[in-house]
Amino acid sequence: MLPQKMAVTLALGLTVLITGPGILPARAAVIDDLQQVAAVIAPAEYQELASRVNSYTRIYRVEEGDTLASLGRRFQADPELIAVMNYLDSGATLTPGQFLVLPHEEAQTYTVASGDTLWSIARRFGVDFDQLAAANGIVDTHNLRVGTVLTVPGSPAPKAARPVTGLASRSLKPVSMIWPLIGALTSGFGWRGGEFHHGLDIAGNMGDKIRAALAGTVVLSGWGNSVYGRMVKIDHGNGLETVYAHTSRNLVKEGEYVQAGEAIAEVGATGNASGPHVHFEVREKGKAVNPERFLAR
Length: 297
Prior knowledge:
Low-confidence stretches: 1-28, 155-173
Structural class: alpha+beta
CATH topology of the largest domain: Glucose Permease (Domain IIA)
Number of strands: 18
Strand content: 25-35%
Number of domains: 3
Radius of gyration: 21 Å
Oligomer: single chain
CATH class of the largest domain: Mainly Beta
């Protein structure tokens, strides 16, 4: 394990950037070739950085004025997750030339089929409804023409950027979970106004059964706080947890082992909730990640 300072800093001197053998394009903030990085940093630093690159990440070189918050907005990622992925404190100051690993999901295409709605497509791919509409220039969201090919956005990137290629390791193929509640997806994972929404909001009727997305041990069943209200948290092992918030009544106790699909709570509107729904989160090692990566489609 490299010292934290070495793992975090990975900064380039101006002379190396201009005259080194592996010159990086002046405005190539998103690095599309790991070999460019290998040419300008020490081998040990390169190996540590490369070990964190996979199909769900990309390399970014910090530019003047960048902050964790601005990168979070630009790439639609949780600033705290970016910090954790790079061994940084949440309030860390970034240094121009510093290399960061960012979460990334590639854009996909989808051909509209009979019965599809923009809402159902957004839910299927785990993307924000408004972002999907904007990415495809859709004004009338109620009328989709069958056969239309839509671009399903992943993490937004500059037009000139390409996905990271080269050394890719530690595949993050997620486990498969079931939906905790069948209902309309009213809010997705990501930026919502001026705040980052750490899960999915699924609408339901008061008293509808909420089910465990995956087998595990209940580690919290009770009142969370004024935001989450009454909630259930399940530990699935290997640093993976799920959270079910705003419940009206919990049906399980702490220490109880539950199976996937087992009823664990009832839909409510406790805490900071505008109506009956479940706020569902998936956490990896304590940090919220997009639940749609895990949910069966």
